[in-house]
Write a structure and sequence with these properties.
Two copies of one chain form a homodimer. By secondary structure, chain A is of the alpha/beta class. Chain A has eleven helices and twelve strands. The first copy, chain A, has a six-stranded parallel beta sheet. The interface between A and B is large, with 51 and 51 residues.
Chain lengths: 318, 318
DNA sequence: GTGTGTAATGTTAGCGATAACGGCAGAGGG
DNA sequence: CCCTCTGCCGTTATCGCTAACATTACACAC
């Protein structure tokens, strides 16, 4: 018991005893068994984080935000990856909950009914991240992808573009990309416009795909004057291709992506984009989990971050 | 006990009882407590993975390999990030071991003495990854960064370049980058050459930094005819800058990076690079952990993967 | 000397599962 | 009819720790 007290810095132990305990622990190479500790104390210093992928730049960045915020709270993130599969998500969630984590951070607000039920009954704070368009289980931190798309459409139309194409991923389970597209179309519709052409891809290096798709769509619809990409990577590929071809960007053709990945600072032109507040989302989500018992938060917060349009060099200025 | 048997598919239970148990579990939303299970069975289905960073593209890729390989082994990776700090690594490792994972995968073979002691006494398979230049604790999976640097130097010299500069990160704790540089210098020395100039950076977007550094080093040493970058991202930045400047690549100036990130497929030219076998390293490491008790492996394997030089379009061909 | 308060340490009873074994019923062989 | 075997399910004792309470030691006031 005294050992337990020393190793947890809890309760009164004389300095002399404390020293002796630490010394002995060092000599023996003793590492306390958290499993037993957690079982006894009903406290687990783990936070489950469930994301669709690690290949998409965005999620490691969110993770970085989470890690940073959790840094000195004694909490530790445990990551699960779903590959955009709802069934996998359900399985991963079940697995995580069976470890009775102190909280769960999960990407998106679309889940299988079973997954949703688990989240509701988890008995710990749940934060759904990335997306606020819909009804969350507990807390939600993210941006409105619908409005992000809508605002981008407005900005593009305001800049005078009229024949607009969309290039994106062929992923029915990527609800956020879908919502951006819907919002975008809504934004166009408000000005009496609609998408002239679309092109979808799946798999492969995004940069290379961006090139290919851009070539394909422009060959099919040469009169397009703007291309909206569902992410910055394919947008960057498109931009590079256009520059190769000597296309006048943004005069003859405008381009925009989404995410605001700073990885791409340093391209010949700055691609128009919209910051998805990824790191900030991670931080805020972690903050909610970490602070919940102490700061009077009782759950159900919806924190909507406001993505900022950066027109960069690929949209005509007024 | 019968419930336990049903939920673990272990031992004999009649079909009728099994159905009843599953039904009841569903109705109650019962999620077994793995903490208690792990304590009782002394088995934990977690694998600790300790990496320096998530911002560096490379590590998410390794993680992807690990996840994929662990997919249907019932094992789950738990990620810890050290930010290249040996002390943080020690702390993260301690934290992980206190959960008694089934194995540990840790980047690098340089650790604090305490961390090394923990790894040696962990009593579970340990795989040190990325780097084979040195003495590992148990198993090691990686490439020789020293030889990677050396081979690149040989290839560059063979291509006829003579005035060679190096651009890299200012990170004393990035042992792999250091070893590549050392190997590179060794390779140059073998031909009686040495580095003409070097330039280091830290922080910021790698692409943009690559541009800056390239400009800086070429201004200072305009007669350089080759630039070796410590990673592909800054190399790509450098390449874009050179193209902007109308510099003849690879005629007047050759460029090479390291990692072989396929993210960059789609640049105007393919940067010369060397595949670091990231995903493969993840797979093999996970395979060792997953297979250990079953496949007769007893630990101590050293698996050295052979990175392949891809000369791309930024090194003169003979 | 006795009572009281405080600091330091010890005892006991779980936490929720599983390992290991025990018991019982019914089948089948002799 | 007895015995063994197998299939199924229950009992008991941990696993290594911590919460809660108990005890001891000692200082100090009266």
């Amino acid at each position: 018991m005294t050992v337990s007290r020393v190793l947890r810095n809890r309760g009164d132990v004389s300095e002399a005893t404390r020293e002796k305990v630490l010394e002995a622990a060092r000599v023996l190479g003793y590492v306390p068994n958290k499993i037993a500790g957690a079982l006894a104390s009903q406290r687990v210093n783990l936070v489950g984080v469930i994301i669709p992928s690690l290949s998409n730049l965005v999620f490691p960045e969110v993770l970085t935000g989470i890690s940073a915020e959790l840094e000195d709270t004694g909490l530790q993130p445990v990551v699960g990856v779903t590959n955009y599969s709802p069934e996998k998500e359900e399985a991963v969630l079940y697995e995580m909950l069976s470890w009775r984590p102190s909280g769960v951070i999960i990407a998106g607000i679309e889940h299988t009914p079973a997954a949703r039920a688990m989240l509701e009954n988890a008995g710990v704070p749940v934060v759904e991240i990335m997306d606020v368009d819909g009804e969350g289980v507990d807390s939600v931190v993210g941006i409105s992808h619908r409005r992000a798309g809508l605002h981008m459409a407005e900005a593009i139309v305001a800049a005078g573009y009229r024949k607009i194409g969309f290039l994106g991923t062929k992923m029915p389970e990527d609800h956020r990309a879908r919502k951006r597209l819907e919002g975008f179309q809504e934004g166009l519709a408000a000005s009496g416009l609609e998408l002239v052409d679309t092109e979808f891809y799946s798999g492969g290096s995004a940069l290379a795909k961006g090139r290919e798709m851009t070539q394909t769509i422009l060959k099919r619809s040469p009169d397009l004057d703007f291309l909206y990409y569902s992410n910055d990577m394919i947008g960057a590929g498109g931009l590079l291709w256009c520059l190769d071809q000597g296309i006048d960007v943004p005069g003859r053709l405008g381009l925009a992506g989404f995410n605001g990945v700073d990885l791409l600072d340093g391209l010949p032109r700055r691609l128009a984009t919209m910051d998805a507040c990824r790191r900030e989302i991670g931080r805020k989500a972690a903050e909610i989990i970490a602070g919940r018992p102490h700061n009077g938060l009782i759950g159900g917060e919806v924190i909507e971050l406001e993505p900022v349009i950066q027109l960069g060099d690929t949209v005509r200025r007024a």
